[in-house]
Amino acid sequence: MRSRIIKLGLLVLLLVLLAVSIWLVGEGRATMFIESGVIVSAPIPSPTPEESWLILPPMPADATEADIGAEIYRLVCRDCHGDRGQGLTDEFRATWNPKDQNCWQSKCHAPVLLPEGFILPHYIPAIIGPNTLARFEGAVDLQKYIRENMPWHDPGSLTSEEYWLLTAFILRENELDPNISPD
Ligand code: HEC
């Protein structure tokens, strides 16, 4: 009797695990592959939305594109790329709440994921400062890259306009010409 209950329990557990895996893959959160021995997930780009989901603080009337971009950076990009665009450095992680500092152990970013979790890459590059962004030819190229690839865990989830505002901010911080326009 007891062994039948155990078998039934195992079967139910397996079915639940299967359902969760199918759901994760469907959600685009669980397409994992091994890269240089490190498990990384490959986010599936969402189509660029027309409506924004961001709630930005009130901005002064004379705020520039780069000023608004700075707020979007703070809300969406900063946790990964650092408060000064320095990348995910040990020094930046040390500013976090101690229990969150080892991001790879938490339930959010380790291989055992909560529904809203994702696997955090171990290396996140600097995007502000000397010798960063050298591979981009200009604003159009940079906007296209971030629109198609960022934020890393949910690419394409901002509006095209928001990617332009972010581009203006990143260019300004790198002392490159911020006078860009979408056309
Ligand atoms: C979950 C962490 C994460 C978040 C959030 C994130 N990024 Fe990234 N970003 C990465 C990783 C990892 C790479 C490196 C990807 C690669 O090389 O394939 C990267 C690369 C980049 C690069 C290219 C840098 C280079 O020189 O190659 C830019 C630019 C960039 N991110 C901008 C942004 C912007 C703007 C946002 C906010 C919309 C953002 N990222 C949000 C993790 C993140």
Strand segment count: 2
Ligands and ions found: heme C
Mean pLDDT score: 79
Number of helices: 5
- Give the neighbour order of strands across the main sheet: 1-2
Strand content: under 5%
Using the coordinates above, name the CATH class of the domain at 47-173. Mainly Alpha
Query: Which descriptor suits the 3D outline?
Result: elongated
Structural class: mainly alpha
Major sheet: size, sense and barrel closure? 2 strands, antiparallel
CATH architecture descriptor text of the domain at 47-173: Orthogonal Bundle
Low-pLDDT parts are: 24-39
- The CATH fourth-level homologous superfamily of the domain at 47-173: Cytochrome c-like domain
Question: What gyration radius follows from the Cα positions, in whole Å?
Answer: 20 Å
Helix/strand order, N-terminal first: HEEHHHH
Might you state the CATH topology name of the domain at 47-173?
A: Cytochrome Bc1 Complex, Chain D, domain 2
Distance between the termini: 72 Å
User: Portion of residues in helices?
Assistant: 25-40%
List its traits.
single chain, Cytochrome Bc1 Complex, Chain D, domain 2
Short structural description:
This protein has 183 residues and is mainly α. The protein has helices at 2-26, 65-81, 90-93, 139-149, 160-173; strands at 32-35, 38-41. 39% of the residues lie in helices and 4% in strands.
